[in-house]
Amino acid sequence: MKKVDRPPATGSFALPRASGIPWFAGGFSILAIIAALIGWAILQGRADARHTAAVTTANLSRILADHFNSSVRQIDLGLLNIADAVSRQGNSNRLNETAIDVAIDRQNARHPNLIGFQFLGADGRLRYGSINTADTGHIARPDHFLSLAEPSDGGLVVGPAEFGRNPRQWRIAVSRRVNQADGSFAGIAICSLSAQALTESYARLDLGRHGTVALADTDFTLAARFPEYDRPNDPGVSSKVASPFLEVIASGAPFTQFDYASAVDGRRRLATVRKIEGQPYYLLVGLAEDDYLADWRRNTVWFLLLGALLSGMLLAAIFTLRRHLDSSEAAARTVRESEARFRRMLDEMPIGVCLFDEQGRMYFRNQRFVSLFGYLEADVPNLAEWWQVACPESGYRQWAQERWQASASEAAAGVKEIETVECRVRCKDGGTRDIEIAGVTFGSHFLTTFFDQSERRQAEEALRESKIFVQGVLDSVSNHIAVIDETGRIIATNNAWRQFSLENSSEPGRLAPNTDVGTNYLQVCAGPASSTSAEAAAARDGIRAVLDGRLPTFSLEYPCHSPQQQRWFMMTVTPLGSGQKAAVVVHSNITERKKIEEEIRNLAYYDSLTQLPNRRMLHDRLARTLAASRRSGRHGALLLLDLDNFKPLNDQQGHAIGDLLLIEVARRLGANVREIDTVARLGGDEFVVVLGGLDASEAASRDDAMAVAEKIRSALAQPYSLTVIQEGKTAATIAHRCSSSIGVTLFVGQETNPHEIFKRADDAMYQAKQMGRNAIWFR
Fold first, then answer.
1. Is 143 helix (H, G, I), strand (E, B) or coil?
2. Closest by alpha carbon to 268, among 247, 240, 241, 293?
3. What's the gap between Cα 724 and its chain centre?
4. Residue 740: helix, strand or coil by DSSP?
5. pLDDT one-digit tens code per residue, 694-714
6. How far are the Cα atoms of 158, 311, 693 from residue 632, in angstroms, in the given order?
7. pLDDT tens string 483-531
8. pTM
């Protein structure tokens, strides 16, 4: 608090009217300067916005050109792979179709966004490829084909934009000559870039609401454009670009920037045209003035508003000063109004305020003072009366009064401010309050403040009780809970957290490292690499993302196994709220839920008796085996078997014995097939065996499948010793012989209907039963 001198009384005085002229001249000069500065800022802002747009279009055009060349290089690698597959076959007149198809399928799988790889023979006909053989692209045109058929090193050719027949869309064909081992012409490898795919990639750029990208070849044909517009989907009708893009292409300039009005939507744009290095294509990237000048226009409005505001403030100041110079009475009235506002401000303050003169007379007290203590002017007209009623006990009053007077005397002498005095005072209603008395001096007067500490202490006590309550709530929750600050330091934990840390600590009786209050919990996730290092890194990144505000919440399931059991937990991280950069970390034990999910999965996909895959899982495994057969070209087999004489055993000995037989059959089946094969139970006494990856030869695959079937038939025909224990009875062992009838069928990847495979196997099994059972039949 500072010592403030009371301002001297101000008398009335007036200046000659002419004395205001320099103020007006200076004010209008400032207005002119403000206008000039704002005009310069507006023009400079527009120039900066255009420069930024020019740099942006130049950078985007370079990125898109590099992307186009990268796509061409990827296609060329695929074409070289196909050419290599052809050349490795020597000079044979008959090419290995499987090897070339595999090479083409591999490239198509690697590049799904391209319009298919193809191979055209030396006669110009399409030999291999997934695209309609009637559509050979630009390479079928004699001039292109003959140019590639001429003896050369097989260079890459990027064709002009054209409209394909299948699929019906605009594209860019990329082709390469393919030679046989002796260098003779074997054909052409070709693949096409989809104009639609290029347009979709342009759409992902940040071009503003009205930005545009166009790709055109050196024949002025538009290959791709964003945004798209209707153009003829007719191979006989070309789509030419318009001026000034056409003029730039015709000039052959490698890089050009210009402003133009679009013929499509009429908007003015700043464009960059760049020739793609090494390719017969040009790129145009344009940003609309409506977009790149949007911020400038908004800023211009703000500049103008600011100029108007400053001008208005300056004019107001000038006219206000003129009024004050013209009338001393207005100045005096302003002083009086200011004093009244000061008094109102003091009266509305939330703390008690009193004003004393040098004799100790209390000539002002605000409403808060009266509401705190209840004393009116008649009760305490001066400082002496205040101490008399506020501290009725003489010894305490003397101590408090001496402290106050000593501090006030030093402040009045200019040594320092009035030090705060803490004391307990009696109110008019007989109650007491703990207060802090402080103040400042201005001249010989004192402004004294009375701050009630009772409410603060009550608030502190309420806060302490609230913390105890919150901690009690946390400790009553069974989940493990910790609160961390923005650095990851733990600031609070519950009892479940501390107990779990003690139980899982490597040091008995001590909490696990970095889990106690004051330690950094993120260090738990930054330890040495282990089997859970991936989960630890994910947990650290997730907690950091929530603390930084990049994620609203984060959860992670992770294993935390103990020597006694396998356990699973879920960590949930949520912001603490209230604008604080802190988070609540909750670990919940979800082991029981995991067990239930595993049981549900087993019920859905596995037979509850034999634990073999059920019908649903069987269809999934068969589909995978068919897919693998399509990729490898190897055959697979399906064995459908039915137990002979199972029903009599089930009816005579009971379902318990029948179940034991089915379990033993499942065990023997699993022991006689490979790990990659599938054994499933359809229901009752029917089982299915799926064999995959046999052989590319049908005869060899049949022999392998029949050998496995014979092995299974022989194993199932061995005697069974079935022991059943019934409640209240001794264990009973039953010897039983059981044979099987097995139907075998082959399949290869071209077959896509599992129903037909099952039907052939079922017919074969029926034939085996007709033969007298305990037999194998192939169909």
1. helix
2. 293
3. 58
4. strand
5. 998 999 999 999 999 999 999
6. 33, 83, 8
7. 888 888 888 888 888 888 777 777 777 887 878 888 888 887 665 444 4
8. 0.40
